Amino acid sequence: MKKQILTALAISVFAVACTKSTTKSEQVENADGTVTTTTTTVTESSPHLVDSAKVNEAKENVNAKLDQAGDKIDNAAQKAKDKIDATADKTKQDLNKAGQDIKTEANKVGKDIKSGAQEAGKDAKEAARKSAAKVEDAAKKLKEDLSK
To answer: What span, in angstroms and rounded, lies between the C-alpha atoms of 58 and 36?
Structure first.
């Protein structure tokens, strides 16, 4: 491929070297007093020094190679995009699963805390009941002692 590009480059340089260009400048004064400059370049090539069929063939070869390279780049880019999309989908699924796992564990912890709080409440009520019974017993004893 390097040889073909270099060949096309050499033909292009040769073609440019065999051209003759003439530049003409023309100035026109407008009605409002401004000046407009028009530059015209005329390029002439010598038909005897360059075989246009060979130039066209080289051009077509270069275009074909460029098209092939473009196709290869497009295919590689599509494969890379597909891999990125697949990785993104997998990551999304993993994150969703992790979120569900966290939610499930949080619900379990919440239930455990609620259960523990209910049990602690029952224990507190029971302790208060026993304490009240002891206070009542102590009050009865004190009352009996005072009445003696």
So the answer is: 41
Q: How far apart are the first and last CA of the chain?
A: 124
Phi-psi map region of 50: left, alpha, beta (phi>0 left; psi -120 to 50 alpha)? beta
pTM, full prediction: 0.39
Rounded (5°) CA angle 4-20-62: 15
* Dihedral sign from CA coordinates of 60, 66, 67, 72: positive
Positions in the chain short of pLDDT 50: none
Q: List CB contacts of 115: < 8 A, sequence separation 6 or more.
A: none
Pairing of strands 35-45, 19-29: antiparallel
| Model confidence pLDDT, tens digit, residues 23-32 | 787 887 877 8
Backbone torsions φ then ψ of 27, nearest 5 degrees: -110, 135
